[in-house]
Design goal:
By secondary structure, this protein is an alpha+beta fold. Among the domains are: 76-305, no CATH class; 368-401, no CATH class. Helix content is 37%, strand content 16%. Helix 3 (134-149) runs antiparallel to helix 6 (201-222), helix 4 packs parallel to helix 9 and helix 6 (201-222) crosses helix 9 (265-279). The structure holds S-adenosylmethionine (SAM).
Length: 401
């Protein structure tokens, strides 16, 4: 299992000499953080910002309208339950609420469960990316148990007591999970299957995302390549997958902050983990550990890109279909006066400059839709991402108050 790497936020990236091709021997262990961050784009370096954490800084002047990064597909994505039949599993295409006709199906007893695609091409691309149908079967397994769970009692919503020391509760609850897991792993498969419980819709969404990440990790372990030090857009598919995984492993995780803010989520994350222990298919089951699952959830919280419908006019409300994690695009910080724009075309994200950029200027996107709001509103909305906005616009507006 790939180790989680501690990120040194204080290290400054040097620019990459792309004529010199070096090789990373061990793709997941002992990785050089600076090297893989330097492989994202020839246009920018990832280095420390003045307000904390890392950000992307232009290496030289860049004209307005330049595409700085194209991300072809997410490391993992997930469609929420209400749209699972209407938004394509692979490319998120949505056809005015019509149920998609192209499916991968599997029969479990009398129940047929399906994954939905917008076209035969998308289904084929999904299958070509799979290994022995493992990803499809894993997602179908989740569908099957999710649907079967609807006949079981809803899980009681627990919440840590307001007076308890939350850190001790978290530690103790996960220790109890470890004891539970020991018992479960010693059970016969039929007895273990009888322990599968009902999950909530949000747990279902998160579990599909975690399975996608586990599958990506499994795939990289099966197709290990020596990763040349080239920019991501110069790499072949396997190398690109490997680099995206390395970039994923060094993303920041906000699981502790999220549980601190919403303590009831502790029990939801425990449900997600237990469900994965009980239902994950054998090759991916080897990857299921509480540390990895918690870090995977935590990386989604501060790095995922929401997948929204395209509104045909500005007054139309956009629908939220789910989210995708694109590690190479996760180093752009937010600004309330962004100089970059993100565009999604199916499952491809492109990042383009909105203005001429000066050397060493930070490249930022807009994380939400609040940039025209007052500074107080922006700060409140952005607190969902667990940060106080340090962009120039907020700094100036706060100083003039
Ligand atoms: C997608 S990540 C961006 C990369 C991140 N800075 C890093 O070092 O990995 C989002 C996180 O970056 C930080 N961040 C992004 N925009 C920021 C801003 N305008 N001010 C302060 N922190 C910001 C927050 O911690 C946020 O949760």
């Amino acid at each position: 299992m790939p180790s989680t790497i501690t990120v040194d936020l204080h290290s400054e990236m040097g620019s990459l000499n792309d004529t010199e091709v070096k090789y990373i021997k061990s793709p997941s262990k002992d990785i050089d953080t600076d090297t893989c961050l330097g492989q994202i784009s020839p246009f920018f370096n990832v280095k420390k910002t003045k307000y904390g954490g890392r950000g992307c800084f232009a290496i030289s002047a860049i004209p307005k309208g330049t595409v700085l990064l194209t991300c072809n597909k997410p490391i993992s994505s997930t469609i929420i339950k209400p749209f699972r039949k209407e938004a394509c599993t692979r490319c998120f295409s949505y056809c005015d609420g019509r149920i998609l006709k192209t499916k991968i199906q599997k029969k479990f007893g009398k129940e047929i469960v399906s994954l939905y695609f917008c076209s035969e091409e998308c289904k084929e691309e999904f299958t070509n990316d799979d290994i022995d149908n493992l990803y499809a079967d894993s997602l179908l397994e989740i569908e099957r148990h999710y649907i079967a769970g609807l006949n079981k009692p809803e899980m009681e919503l627990k919440e840590p007591s307001k007076t308890a020391d939350l850190q001790s509760v978290i530690k103790q609850e996960w220790e109890e999970v470890a004891l539970w897991e020991k018992k479960i792993r010693a059970m016969k498969p039929t007895k273990r299957a009888s322990q599968i419980f009902r999950i909530s819709d949000s747990e279902y969404t998160e579990i599909k995302y975690v399975i996608g990440v586990l599958f990506h990790m499994y795939k990289c372990s099966k197709k290990q390549v020596s990763l040349p030090i080239k920019y991501i857009n110069e790499l072949d598919n396997n190398e690109r997958n490997q680099l995206e995984l390395q970039l994923f492993n060094i993303l920041q995780s906000s699981e502790p902050e999220k549980v601190q803010k919403y303590p009831y989520l502790l029990y939801s994350y425990i449900n997600i983990y237990k469900f994965l222990v009980l239902t994950t298919l054998p090759p991916l089951q080897d990857l299921v550990s509480s540390d990895l699952v918690r870090a995977t959830i935590g990386r989604n919280l501060s790095n995922a890109f929401g997948i929204w419908s395209e509104a045909s006019n500005p007054s139309e409300e956009k629908e939220f279909f789910g989210f995708g994690v694109y590690p190479s695009a996760s180093y752009f910080n937010h600004s309330c006066g962004p100089n970059m724009i993100k565009k999604r075309t199916k499952n491809v994200l492109t990042f383009t400059t909105l203005q001429d950029i000066k050397p060493d200027q930070e490249l930022c996107i807009d994380y939400g839709n609040y940039i025209n709001e007052k500074v107080e509103v922006r700060r409140r909305e952005l607190s969902e991402w667990f940060f106080d906005c340090g962009c120039d616009k907020c700094t100036v507006e706060l100083q003039s108050q």
